[in-house]
Amino acid sequence: MRRVSRITIAGVATAALALTASACGSSSSESSSSSDSKNLGLALAYDVGGKGDQSFNDAATAGLDKADKEFGYKSTAVEPQDGESEADKVQRLETLAKQGYNPVIGVGFAYAPAVKEASAKFPKTTFGIVDDEQTKADNVADLVFSEEQASYLAGVAAALSTKSNTVGFIGGVDVPLIHKFAAGYKQGVEDTKKGVTVKVQYLTETAAEGGFSSPDKGESAAEGQIDDGADVVYAAAGLSGQGVIKAANANKIWAIGVDSDQYKQDALKAYKASILTSAMKNVEGAVYELAKSVHDGKPETGVVRGSLSNGGVSVSNSNPEFADNAKIQDAIKKASEGIKDGTIKVKTS
């Protein structure tokens, strides 16, 4: 698994331990408190899959890069460990805060308990948590999204693109967050074209089993759905989604990407002709805006939700076959308006 070779933290022993930055940041070994030193910039603690997933984590990295360019920061980003404990996550966040990074962002719901604990110890540091809204504190921003809305639009596109009347959904891990993607997609398909079968499959029960970080698992699952007749497959599976897209390309069917505009990504350029669209959520913007709010002295806190109405979620138009299909575009526009004005209520489970 690719992530193992990119681990940048073998274990955090003390709060003064130097962290090695990934390619998107620089290294730092300052041990002064964030309350009495110059802000070094923001710090990302990656979710499973890490940098290079062409999806969720890379979108966060793009937000970091934008903030660095605009504010002259020297931000950092650190990788997860295989089989790490909750204490490892807590120490990672506390070390980043103590070194002087602000905000400190846990990229993924798995960081929620660690953010809760670390934020209580560093009240002058702003913390962010992506994809979780359970952490309530005066110095925590819960960066969440209406993934079901973009997934509904992906379902509309799938329903109007299938010829076999069978489409698939592959979720990385069987958890409530990924259920939102599945529910919106299934509803979008069913509301658009009656009689279409939606096959739903989850790769693993837990993230530790590799559901978000195993392209081979994604490829195998997609091959199975394709064998069962699916000619459009949508994956919400992080790095594992690369395998789904590869399988779609090999079988000359449509894939629908997730989180970022996967049609544009270099690592997937060999398969881009098979990527119909991507159900995007603006993690890049959320990370950047939190960093900007701290830079401006008015840190965001509480629940910050991205939706169709505010541009926080959307579907991409990069593939000309999608952008130039008037029937699909008209249906997407109509569905978007219905979601925004409340006439379409999208399910989350």
SSE layout and pairing:
Layout: E1 41-45, H1 56-71, E2 76-78, H2 86-99, E3 101-106, H3 112-121, E4 127-130, E5 140-145, H4 147-161, E6 166-173, H5 176-192, E7 197-204, H6 215-227, E8 232-236, H7 241-250, E9 254-259, E10 275-281, H8 283-295, E11 302-306, E12 313-315, H9 320-323, H10 326-341
Parallel strand pairs: 1-2, 1-3, 3-4, 4-5, 5-11, 6-7, 6-8, 8-9, 9-10
Antiparallel strand pairs: 10-12
Keywords, please?
6-stranded parallel β-sheet, 6-stranded mixed β-sheet, alpha/beta, 349 residues, globular
Task: Give a quick summary of the entry.
This protein is of the alpha/beta class and 349 residues long.
Write the element-wise H/E pattern from the N-terminal end onward. EHEHEHEEHEHEHEHEEHEEHH
Largest sheet: 6 strands, parallel
Number of β-strand runs: 12
| Dominant shape | globular
Strand proportion: 15-25%
- On the 0 to 100 scale, the average pLDDT is 89
Helical coverage, percent range: 25-40%
Strand order within the widest beta sheet: 2-1-3-4-5-11
Helix/strand/pairing class, anyone? alpha/beta
Q: Poorly predicted ranges (pLDDT <50, ≥5 residues)? A: 1-37
Radius of gyration: 20 Å
N-to-C CA distance: 31 Å
Q: Count helical runs.
A: 10
